[in-house]
Design goal:
This protein is an alpha+beta fold and 138 residues long. It has five helices and four strands; from the N terminus they run H-E-H-E-H-E-H-E-H. It has a four-stranded antiparallel beta sheet, with helices on both faces.
Length: 138
Amino acid sequence: MDAYDGGRLPAGLTGRRWAREVSRVLAPDGLLLVNAADSPGLRWVTRLGATLRTELPQVGQLILREVAKGKRFGNVVLVASRAPLDDVTLTRAAARADFPTTWRPSAQLAVAERGVEPFGEVGEPSPPPPEDGPLRLR
């Protein structure tokens, strides 16, 4: 899913209702890929991951290293499934990416999501992108 409105992922595509609907139509061995964007700290993306996990227990992240380290606003691709994700293949794919990228496995994210409140039925829109200038390193 890559659905932005004014540079933001709409609230209707981030809540529990949406997660239930995706789970309903996703094949048993299917993958959901969500292109999301967040500010340093990734609080919003963490809540989105926790929301997806309410329906699809396996949620990993493909993420640029500078975004993962909190150096800038940027995109995160969440990968969600009912079935276990192939961490070895996804780690290798991240290592071969054109830009320094990392794979964060579902087990690692589950630990990071402990105590994080999933979004409600409708969810919340993603944070707005920075208004001034290109997306840069701090």
